[in-house]
Design a protein that fits this description.
globular; alpha/beta; 4 strands
Amino acid sequence: MKVPTYATTSRSAASGVTVVLDTCIHGPAKVIDPEGPMMTNSAKWAYYAPAHLGYDVVLAGRRDCVESAVRGTIVLESAHG
């Protein structure tokens, strides 16, 4: 199952996902429109997204975030050893 995958990073970085360059997706332009919970490894995003944007957020490590994007479902394996 394909799931939308976003990364915020500097202009010098690139990947096979939707890359949001030189800005925060919390900014004035609505960059994403999730259909379910969002997953992030950013404590800042996990804190602000629910209150400011109304998103449900799962805070996890980078490994679980990437594995979740690959599988198309939320994966929380790293925390369990």
